[in-house]
């Protein structure tokens, strides 16, 4: 313990003198260093290469591409006195490639210098001293701009149209790159959109295989274009057809008009679509006058769309195949039982009976086959209405005797009587009988 205390006492003995001596030694060292100004090296990193006299190539219609990133020197090392090294920064160091000194191997030597104290620098070197170039003929290509949409709009909507404020661009660059360009595209994302889109979209270049081409070494007169995408709501509605005219004698319109498609999807603003219930094709388009067979036509549906609407299905050609069905009139003879013929409206004091009440009567009817064949004879009843009988004969009062009368039938729509059924009736006065 005593030995340690002696050592500490000696260290702090005359401490002021010892501190002064230390400071004096440091100042003396600094003085010597400043007087001697020793030379040493210092490195600066990532120095860009300044390209000069590039017009040597461009004026000859050539373009160049720097290879292997040789336009940046990873490190530049100088040897200079300390006073110079302390003053310089990376911004003072210049790496320069003069294109007028281009070699036959398409390289340019990089020269190094300092913007300050260049004459006091002993040496200056770079980690790479050669600028490597790929030199080609300059080529220009004009391309149409194609607008593409990506994603899906909201359900019940479609992309109606796309347009851009620029439909052509010019691309200039190395021939090997420009010759690969097959298309220029701008893309707009429409995912879940329900209203129109207006946006600026960047131009993307593609080769024939659909691979994107880097634009690093290309010059494009337009880098982005303004794109407008019109988005409309959709609605599916039926197509209504009607025919006009009368087929030739002995032929009938069946009432059936078949159209393919019979429903179409249209697009428009929501307010316009709200009032649309169907697409109506005017009847004059389907004229069957004098026809003896089906009328088959192609109808351009688009011509009959409501105002401010368009067809929404891009896969639909817009033409509907329409057939108006016509068939030959079908004739059938019905057996009418005598008790199915009723005599009504008999004036008081008379009786009216059928002269022949045993055998069934034959009623010839005609119409569409399906309709005529569906008639059940048991359900057919005819009527001789005596007031009509008297009016047809200008009779104010009935007179006894045997007469011929026309039987009236209510057979339903689409059935006509080919030949009226006439029966003989016997009129008898009750007073004379008594």
Q: What structural keywords apply?
A:
RNA Polymerase Alpha Subunit, Chain A, domain 2, alpha+beta, 16-stranded mixed sheet, 5 domains, 434 residues
Describe the structure.
The protein is rod-shaped and about 175 Å long. It has a 16-stranded mixed sheet that branches. Strands 14-19-17 form a three-stranded antiparallel sheet, with no helix packed on it. A three-stranded antiparallel sheet has the order 20-23-27. With 434 residues, the protein is an alpha+beta fold. The protein has five domains: 2-36; 39-128, RNA Polymerase Alpha Subunit, Chain A, domain 2 (Beta Complex), CATH 2.170.120; 137-233, Beta Complex (RNA Polymerase Alpha Subunit, Chain A, domain 2), CATH 2.170.120; 242-328; 331-433, RNA Polymerase Alpha Subunit, Chain A, domain 2 (Beta Complex). The chain contains nine helices and 28 strands. Strand 10 and strand 11 form a beta hairpin.
Strand content is over 45%
Binned, the helix content reads: 10-25%
Q: List how many beta strands DSSP finds.
A: 28
Chain-averaged pLDDT? 89
Q: Which spans of ≥5 residues are poorly predicted at pLDDT below 50?
A: none
CATH topology of the largest domain, by name, is RNA Polymerase Alpha Subunit, Chain A, domain 2
Q: Which structural class best describes the helix and strand composition?
A: alpha+beta
Large-scale geometry: rod-shaped
CATH classification class of the largest domain: Mainly Beta
Radius of gyration, in angstroms, nearest whole number? 54 Å
Give the helix tally. 9
Could you tell me how far the N terminus lies from the C terminus, measured between alpha carbons in angstroms? 177 Å
Major sheet: size, sense and barrel closure? 16 strands, mixed
Overall tally of domains: 5
**CATH arch. level architecture of the largest domain:** Beta Complex
